[in-house]
Amino acid sequence: MGIFSRLSDIINSNLNAMLDKAEDPEKIARLIIQEMEDTLVEVRTAAARSMADKKELLREINEFEHTRDDWAAKAELAIDKGREDLARGALTAKQKAEREIEARKSALAAADTAAEKRKDDLIKLQAKLDEAKAKHRTLMVRRQSAEQTIKVRSQIDSTKVDDAMHRYAKIERKVDELEAYADTYDAKGRSLEAQFEELAASESVEAELAAMKAKRGGSSKKAEG
Questions:
Q1: Tally of CB atoms within 10 A around 4
Q2: Distance CA 118, CA 120 (A)
Q3: Fewest Cβ atoms closer than 10 Å to its Cβ: which of 87, 136, 139, 222?
Q4: Which of 111, 131, 157 finishes a domain?
Q5: 185 and 110 assigned to the same domain
C-alpha cells in the first residue's frame, strides 16, 4: 500500500468520525494537516532508514568483492602449486562470494527504486501539506471576517442601538428646550431696562421731530412774507 493510499484511509476514517459528530471545518482542517505532518515524519524516517540500508549494502558488497578477489588469488596459487583440490575449494568460496555480491546488488537496486519513490512521495506530500496550511489560514481569515461581519451587522440591526439613538434624540431636544428657555429668561430680565431705553429713544425722536417741524414752519412763514 502506498503512502498516499494509507494517508487517505487515515484521513477519511477520522474525517467521517468528525463529520458524524458535526465538528467544525477548522478542526477538520487541523486534523488533516496533523495527519499529513505525521505521515511526512514517517516518510522521512523511512527515507533515512533506506539511506542507512544502502550504505550497509555498499559496505557488504565491498567486503565480498575483497573476499572474492582473495579466493581468486588463492585458487591461482593452488593451481601453481599443483593443488587442484585446494583450487576447487577456493573457486567454490569465490563463487559463493560472487553470489552474495549479486544478491546485495539486487537489493541495492531495489533500495534505490524505493528511495526514489519515497523522495517523490516527500515532494508531493510537502506540496500538499503547504497547500493545506495555506487553505487553513484562508479558512481562519474567512471565518474571523464572517464572525466580525455578523457582530457588526447584529449591532447595527439591534433595537438597543435604535433605542439608544432615540433616547439621545430626546436628550438633544431637552437641551434645545433648555437653551431656548435660558434665552427667554434673559429677555425677561432685560425687559424693564429695555422699556426705559425705548421710552428715552421715543422722547428723543419726538423732540427732534418737533424741532424739525418748527424749523420747517418758520421757513414757510418767511417765504410767505
A1: 13
A2: 5
A3: 222
A4: 157
A5: no
Q: Which of 10-24, 137-151, 158-172, 209-223 has the highest mean pLDDT?
A: 137-151
* Run of H or E including 176: helix 159-189
Q: Indicate whether 28 and 139 sit together in one domain.
A: yes
> How high is the pLDDT of residue 111?
87
Domain boundary among 101, 133, 157: 157
Nearest to 26 by CA among 156, 148, 136, 188: 136
Question: Per the structure, how many domains does the chain have?
Answer: 2
Other C-beta atoms closer than 10 Å to the C-beta of 71 total 20
Q: Is residue 7 pLDDT above 70, yes or no?
A: no
Round to whole Å and give the CA distance between 153 and 168.
21
pLDDT at 5: 54
Q: How far apart are CA 176 and CA 170, in angstroms?
A: 10
Say which residue the cell 516518510 belongs to.
43
* pLDDT tens, residue by residue, 189-203: 555 666 667 777 777
